[in-house]
Write a structure and sequence with these properties.
The chain is an alpha+beta fold. Helix content is 36%, strand content 27%. It is globular and about 55 Å long.
């Protein structure tokens, strides 16, 4: 009678080991690489390691392709071709670049120009792109502003062409391109039958399915003044979140902080009391563009825009009376402002 017991125990042990190895093999994989001028982390869960790695590699290749089209730091990119040639002639571009620009114009219209893809001349004037950070003269700002205006950006569906209608215009996809890239990486993962993944492209995050715990992905929103502190967490499932803040790229002159987030309508860094905006939306493209637009619009008008859009919610942090307050849109329920 002992032999069967030994055999059954042995079989039980083998089954347990097999199950543990199987669970470990299906835990998933993650990787962090440089992409689109920032760092990108892609996590895939619930799959065997080799399968997860293959899908992650495909997603990173997609980000490399999008970067080659849209980066200002790549001389051969379509964005640089547009900036060089589009005032002289219509420039034909790929479907991706055209679609991203079309989305940019959409959010420019929705925000009344608070988001504007043609803001690059002003960014250059302040030294936020390829220059020395400085406060330019009023004359320099006015001259740069004369080259800004999404209404002078002509997109033609026929031939997917781009044309500038006034001189010295230039586009920068920095306020929407990473969101768009995040969405294309997600599309590749889903095309390859990935069921659970998170893509974090420089703070532009999209998550679908569930994390390794079997629960929805949880993403912490960073405190705008303490880099390692999270003030609130959101659960994402087939959603994106993007944050715009005054703390990533700025300079201080005579005690005043000048952020890289420029109001395209004035040509000056935003100074409306808002210091951080996090937007949760159905796509990373939408979250990316809206986080900038809402930051520029300010608390009242920014909340109006967010609450007019289906599936969108936001947390706006403002500095008021020497304190920081996190304000939540109606999508969070009846949540009151939190003093940070």
């Amino acid at each position: 009678m002992k032999t069967p017991m030994i055999k059954s125990r042995a079989i039980f042990a083998i089954v347990c080991v097999f199950l543990m190895l199987s669970c470990a093999a299906r835990q998933g994989e993650s990787d962090i690489r440089s992409a689109m001028g920032t760092f990108c982390e892609i996590k895939v869960t619930g799959e065997r390691t080799e399968s997860a790695k293959r899908k992650i590699d495909s997603a990173f290749r997609e980000l490399e392709r999008v970067e080659s089209l849209m980066s200002l730091y790549c001389s051969s990119s379509e964005v640089n071709l547009i900036n060089r040639e589009s005032f002289r002639r219509p420039v034909a571009v790929s479907c991706d670049t055209f679609n991203c620009l079309r989305e940019a114009v959409k959010y420019s219209e929705l925000s009344g120009g608070a988001f504007d893809v043609t803001v690059l001349p002003v960014l250059r004037a302040w030294g936020f792109f390829g220059g020395l950070l400085n406060k330019p003269s009023s004359e320099t700002i006015n001259e740069a502003c004369s080259a800004v205006g999404y209404l002078s950006l002509e997109l033609s569906e026929r031939g997917s062409t781009v044309r500038f209608l006034k001189p010295n215009m230039a586009i920068d996809l920095g306020g929407i391109g990473k969101g768009y890239g995040c969405d294309t990486a997600v599309a590749v993962l889903q095309k390859e039958t990935c069921l659970n993944a998170l893509v974090n492209l420089g703070g532009n995050i999209y998550a679908f399915g569930h994390s390794s715990s079997g629960r929805p992905w949880k993403v912490g929103l960073r405190h705008p003044r303490f880099k390692d502190k999270v003030f609130y967490s959101v659960a994402l499932n087939n959603q994106a979140v993007s944050t715009s803040g005054d703390y990533e790229n700025y300079f201080i002159d005579e005690g005043r902080r000048y952020s890289h987030i420029i109001d395209p309508r004035t040509g000056c860094p935003v100074s409306n009391g808002v210091i951080s905006v996090s937007v949760i939306a159905p796509t990373a493209t939408e979250a990316d563009a809206l986080s900038t637009a809402v930051f520029v619009l300010g608390l009242e008008k920014g909340m109006e825009l967010v609450e007019s859009m289906e599936g969108v919610k936001a947390v706006i942090i403002e500095e008021r009376d020497g304190s920081l307050w996190a304000n939540f849109s109606r999508g969070f329920g009846e949540k009151r402002p939190i003093k940070l």
